[in-house]
Write a structure and sequence with these properties.
With 293 residues, the chain is an alpha+beta fold. It contains ten helices and nine strands. A hairpin with a 6-residue loop joins strand 8 and strand 9. Helix 3 crosses helix 10, helix 4 packs across helix 6 and helix 4 packs across helix 7.
């Protein structure tokens, strides 16, 4: 997969002076657009559109400083319909407008070309199983929270503390399917997985479809395939490392791609720094292009 992804990035480089066809980039990478965006964000630490904008502005910055073309010509060359739109994009990357950069020879920010390689760090095996699951419903409490890649998520902790005892008791009464007990479910609002991107974060239980949820929020999840990963280590660092390894090591090495759906997480116990048993459910689908690989 990484070889195909690098071929896709090479193709992307040839499109920086015109509109990038993400569908074509995904075709070259031999994955769906959805999986391409998720995989790139996990590997690169930034959404694919942000990388494209930074690469464009890196090339545009060099031309601005060279002084051979007008600023409007450069703007048009890189797909901006007006000098104002180009200036906004330029400033978002370089922290200075193109006119000022040309006049003063300002220091600009370069985004290097990316390529990916699999580094074998060798000792840790990833424990997983594939589960075919019928439709189910998550019943609990939902909050919109920012993603945190390292350390504790204060907003998630505050959401957990806000739950009333009667709500927790009600959830436990309704729990009826695996993964059992109270868990969290994350529904991403965009393809971005960068730090601070928002997601809907649920604390609840898995129940049968149609289960009554009076006084609680409900999330209906269709049938599908799930990759279930298990891990043991200090909370939350081990869990955050597991999520990163799933996207940077497991997906590139296995014939599956991610699909739309909530990620489920069950941890016991949930105490910062304490050894925790984690079970992470990732919605996946078989990658037909790599079946039997």
């Amino acid at each position: 997969m990484l070889e195909r992804l690098n071929q896709a990035l090479d193709h992307l480089e040839t499109c920086l002076d015109r509109e990038v066809d993400i569908a074509e980039v995904a075709r070259i990478a031999a994955v769906s657009e959805y999986h391409l965006r998720r995989l790139f964000s996990a590997l690169a630490g930034m959404p694919l559109p942000v990388y494209v904008r930074r690469r464009r502005m890196t090339l545009a910055g060099a031309e601005v400083l060279a002084g051979e073309l007008t600023l409007l010509d450069i703007a048009v060359r890189y797909g901006y319909g007006s000098a104002e739109a180009f200036a906004r994009a330029f400033r978002s990357v370089h922290g200075v407008g193109p006119g000022e950069a040309r006049r003063t020879g300002a220091v600009l920010t370069a985004q290097p070309r990316m390529s990916f390689r699999l580094v074998v760090e060798g000792s840790a095996a990833m424990r997983y199983r594939i589960v075919e699951k019928e439709p189910f419903r998550v019943i609990g409490r939902k909050a919109r929270l920012p993603l945190v890649h390292e350390g504790t998520n204060a907003a998630a902790e505050a959401h957990a503390r806000s739950l009333e005892e009667r709500e927790i008791a009600r959830m436990k009464e309704l729990a009826g399917q695996g993964p059992g007990g109270i868990l969290s479910a994350v529904v991403y609002l965009t393809d971005s997985r960068e730090e601070g991107a928002e997601a809907d974060y649920w604390i609840g239980v898995v129940t049968a479809p149609g289960t009554a949820a009076e006084g609680l929020d409900a999330l209906d999840v269709p049938a599908g395939t799930w990759a279930v990963f298990e891990d043991h280590g200090p909370y939350p660092s081990a869990l955050q490392g597991l999520w990163r390894d799933v996207f940077t090591q497991w997906f590139p090495s296995n014939p599956y791609t991610s699909r739309a759906g909530p990620e489920l997480l069950r941890t016991r116990p949930v105490e910062v720094g304490a050894p925790t048993d984690s079970q992470l459910w990732i919605p996946v689908e078989r990658d037909g292009g790599r079946a039997g690989a």
